[in-house]
Amino acid sequence: MTLSNKIPVPEGHSLHHVLCPHDCPDTCSMLVTRDDRTGKAVALQGDPTHPVTQGFLCNKVNHYLEFVYNDNRVLYPHKRIGPKGSGARFERISWDEALDTITTNFKKTIAEYGPEAVQPFSYSGTMGMIGFWGMDQRFWNKMNAARLEQTICIYAAMWAGLYTYGLANPPGIDQACKDGAEVVILWGANLVTTSVHSIPFILDAQKRGAKIIAIDPRVTRTTKMADWHIQPRPGTDGALALGMMRAIVDADLHDEDFLEEQTIGWRELIEKRLPDYPVERVAEITGVPEETIVRLAMTYASTKKSFIRANYGLQRHQNGGQMSRAILVLPALTGAWREKCGGAGFGNLEEMWMQLPMDKLQRPDLGSRSESRVINMIQIGRALADNMGIDGRPLDPPIKSIFVYNADPVNACPNSNNVRKGFMRDDLFVAVHDTFWTDSCQYADIVLPADTQLERTDMGAAYGNYYFSFNRPAIEPLGESVRNTELFRLLAQRMGYIDGTDNAFTQTDEDMVRELVDDTNNPLMEGITFEQLEENGWVAANVDSERRNYVKNGWPTPSGKIEIWCEALVRDYPDQDPLPTYVPEIFGQEDPLRAKYPIQVLSSAVHQFIGSSFQHVPRLHAMQSRPTVELNSEDAEARGITDGDLVRLYNDQGETYCHAVVVQGLIPGVCGTQKQMNGSHTKGGRNINALNTEMVTDFGQSPSFYSVLVEIEKVNNA
Known about the structure:
Elements: E1 13-19, E2 29-35, E3 40-46, H1 64-68, E4 78-80, E5 90-92, H2 95-113, E6 118-122, H3 129-133, H4 135-143, E7 147-149, H5 155-165, H6 173-178, E8 183-187, H7 191-194, H8 199-207, E9 211-215, E10 228-230, H9 237-250, H10 256-262, E11 263-264, H11 266-273, H12 279-286, H13 290-301, E12 306-310, H14 320-334, E13 343-345, H15 349-354, H16 358-362, E14 374-376, H17 380-385, E15 401-405, H18 409-412, H19 416-423, E16 429-434, E17 446-449, E18 458-461, E19 467-471, H20 484-495, H21 509-516, H22 530-536, E20 538-540, H23 550-553, E21 562-563, H24 567-572, H25 592-596, E22 599-604, H26 618-624, E23 628-632, H27 633-638, E24 646-650, E25 655-663, E26 670-674, E27 709-714
Parallel strand pairs: 6-15, 7-14, 8-9, 8-12, 9-10, 11-21, 12-13, 15-16, 16-17, 22-26, 23-25
Antiparallel strand pairs: 1-2, 2-3, 4-5, 4-17, 18-19, 19-20, 22-27, 23-26, 24-25, 24-27
Helix pairs in contact: 2-20, 5-14, 9-12, 9-13, 9-14
């Protein structure tokens, strides 16, 4: 369908495709109406022709024009003129001065310490392929700068999937529901908040008789719409999955033919691992009654048309990798992969992103950066404040210059007190490129203005469904804001990286997108052209490509089979079990630490925000109102806490303040609060990440945000 036929627009106005760039699996297609007389965007809505967007947007993105036209935006380059930290003062400067200051520092740092002393820091402030990791990576590759392991969100689950299935992913939940899934398990997945466009498909499946099961310690918007809500203790989901497997095998409901044909390690799983997980033991571990575990297992195994949609929060425990592996193996045991609607997954990022031609996009051939040292982004605090690397050894050279973009590290990273301490170093040069005055800007020497999705060209690849999307700018950049790709072209020019022999820094954004539309190693791109993307704004990935018939052609793993027994995991992590297993978090139910700090914190996604994004939109900020903590009524009563009370959450790491919300049905010993709230909007200036450590998961090097224990007390005279 041509753009002009999608919705009517008034005379003197024009319609523009824009993809939603934020860190959400839906990756919506939007239609923006521009008043051509003023050049201003005046209306925005979901694309009614997009099969997932279906004409509506989430609460956050419905306010996107308030995001674009916002008094809190950074519109011009600035330099700091006083001390770092809260209340830092800045003055406007020219782009020439800003670029010269940054590149002079880069050159000086490289000359004195080497390129590894320059540390990029970025993540998912934009998820467009070009803005997220395109021209920036070319620049850092040319410099041979230090690398950043971008582990903060998905790595434990991602690696669990890669070790087990390779690049194979399940269908999107939209497709699974449309294709007849009879049992849908939403495992740690509050999709009403984090993937609202999946909800119509789930509700349609529910109306035709599909059983919707939510597994979550918390009570959420999603658990309330489910047919059945099961509440295991946090961090015990792996044991629950293994207990389900044991019950399925005991009932002879496993698919032995599928296991023999398609997997390796299934006999070891059944003979050596599952005997350790009788239902009565699993009930003790998880707190889920025996009869519930058996009923869940029988319901799941009653049909191969079963689909498990897990979400990334549950892998943010110390045992998150093995927890994810156990859940992902369930459909292999039952043979659910035989059905088009069957399987299990946390999304489809592996197929949608990792099969794109990244060498063309990022140009690793520009340098030898694969040999540069790696900093894990969740340990940036100890890297900056303690000069300590991922191996626990001193960094040589130390980080002397850090360039932050697409991220707000002082709020997002664990052990945030240490992160802020590191950013306060007088000998550390800090540059920040952002759309808004984030808390991280308060530590910057130079702040650069970034654009919004309405002001750039980019391509999207959804990680919760199978659609690609594209947009050109709908409006001119506001103020002097500059998109990521253009910023790194400007920096490359100042660094002398453009010499006329290579087009790495002169390619246009469109040229870069065109190179991504390549089916050589990506069956999802079969039959897709750039012209299709450009005309319609979105295009369906080729999920029916014969190359994706893994049951017929073999799985993209070293063995060509689903690796229930995984040698690659043991090779990379010698202390890990090659079979899915359950290892308790460091603090078990009887750990003395629980006596001191008896409440486990789950810091989950916020309904009004996406990480740091949208916290600067006044209406959304008013909807959230203030940081809150959900408490079980027994835990609240024992502490003299009632609804609305200001409370202090604390442990040996730090403290933060929230207002109490007493929730009926939340299991005792668990509280829920918002992740990544701006410290500047919080009493005491710190969010929940001040209480987290930099401990990584069992494998995947992910954060253990949910493996944190606290005590909670009422603040008197608040």
